[in-house]
Amino acid sequence: MRRKVEIRGGGIAALCCARLLATRGLDIRYSTLSGTTGPTLLINGSTQKLMCDVFQTEPADLFAGSVIVKKRVVLWGGADKRVELPHFGMVVDESTLVRRLAQRTPFRSEESSTPDWVIYASAKAVTEQKFRFGSRVATLTSVQLANAGSDSCWMESLDEGWLFLVPVGIGTGSLISVGAGPERLLAGSRLVTQQITHINKIGNQVPSSPAILEHLSGSDWLACGSAGVRFDPICGEGAGHAVREAILASAVIRSASGIGGFKSVLNHYESRVLGGFLRHLNLCKQFYESGSDGAWWRAEAKSLAVGAEWVTRRLMNVSTSRYRLAGFDLELAHAV
Ligand SMILES: Cc1cc2nc3c(=O)[nH]c(=O)nc-3n(C[C@H](O)[C@H](O)[C@H](O)COP(=O)(O)OP(=O)(O)OC[C@H]3O[C@@H](n4cnc5c(N)ncnc54)[C@H](O)[C@@H]3O)c2cc1C
Question: Are the C-beta atoms of residues 161 and 179 closer than 8 Å to each other?
């Protein structure tokens, strides 16, 4: 087996790969790439469980001190009434979560010899994704909340974009505005604006439309997490995808010189990641087709349709996979 793996990144995907490979005896090096200063994340129940399985720990440990969100309140597509849906999510600052994951990944070789594999596991480790489906950016804003002890998050569509608000601590919240800046969207808001008493600080803009690299792997490398595929925060599943891709990437690397050879398992990796990205694009399309019939929404929905066609064409060039994941290991799905 090719045993030396260099992981370029220090975020969720990188640390999951490092943990999974090191605990199986591979020689791991990873870098922090100037650290992660990401957004506030709302981590759903299935992603919490997956992270705890990878790091052999409990939610109370990884998400200590997090606000628990139990309800999602939505006002979408010009509806007269808000809809309230049950939800279960933990709110955590991405840098806090990454620090806790890093504390549970104590494996780091100082060896400088050439690696057998490189995993590109941070957006900073690759040049900008070539294929981007939409032009939207997100602005992150810290706000004061009207209700100090709220256990809800709020989501609202407006003619020029959408807002998502989540409580982060007693009386404070994190607001994402996409399509236009927070002040402009809050001026037309009927739901989210009622939850906010004051804007504390308007942060930077970050790209938020889905994007993907032209190729996700080569004979001695893989792209994992936002290095390979970036997800629209509208679905709140980016961290979950990063963990799932890391599990798959680690299983593929461990199997590459065994069952079926590396070309075959890398093909499996491409097909699974592309399949996940296609499902994400179709889910996003439902949000953008129903948010409003304004020009911005129509243009973003059209870009997503173009993306879904592009991924479908690429999937046609990837042969049918013969593998499946059993826990964290890859196995042949059927005899060939
Ligand atoms: C505004 C916003 C809100 C999000 N909210 C949630 C959420 O509530 N729940 C959830 O599960 N996921 C959310 N995500 C996605 C989540 O942050 C990433 O999917 C996850 O951090 C990927 O892990 P990684 O190890 O691949 O990241 P890395 O590549 O190590 O990235 C670290 C940080 O950089 C950001 N980033 C990635 N690509 C770029 C880029 N091209 N330009 C600028 N920044 C970039 C990532 O979002 C992440 O915050 C959100 C992303 C954004 C941008």
Answer: yes
94 alpha carbon to ligand 1 midpoint, in Å? Answer: 8
- Among 149, 160, 7, smallest CA distance to 67 is for 149
Lining ligand 1 with CB less than 6 A are 9, 11-14, 36, 38-39, 41-43, 94, 122-123, 138, 140, 176, 206-208, 225-227, 230-231, 233, 236-240, 242
Specify the higher pLDDT residue, 33 or 133. 133
DSSP state at residue 260: T
**Residue 335 burial by CB count (10 A; 0-12/13-18/19+): exposed, middle or buried?**
exposed
How many Å apart are CA 57 and CA 46, to the nearest integer?
14
Find tokens 């045993």 and name the residue: 3
Assign 46 to helix, strand or coil: helix
- Domains of the chain are 4-134+209-332 (3.50.50.60), 137-204 (3.30.70)
d(CA 162, CA 176): 8
Q: What b/e string do you get for 234-268 counting C-beta neighbours within 10 Å, with b at 16 or more?
A: bbbbbbbbbbbbbbbbbbbbbbbeeebebebbbbb
Q: What is the pLDDT of residues 258-269, one digit of tens each?
A: 666 788 899 999
The closest-lying atom of ligand 1 relative to the alpha carbon of residue 206 is 43
Spatial separation of the C-alpha atoms in residues 205 and 105, rounded to whole Å = 31
Q: Tell me how far apart the alpha carbons of residues 60 and 168 are, in angstroms, rounded to a whole number.
A: 17
Instruction: Kindly report the pTM of this predicted structure.
Output: 0.93
Pairing, β 27-31 against β 229-230: unpaired
The span from the CA of 314 to the CA of 212, in Å, is 12
261 secondary structure, DSSP code: -
**Residue 336 confidence (pLDDT):** 44
143 close to 175: Cβ distance less than 8 angstroms: yes
Q: Are 50 and 280 in contact (CB under 8 A)?
A: no
- Distance between CA 187 and CA 124 in Å, rounded? 35
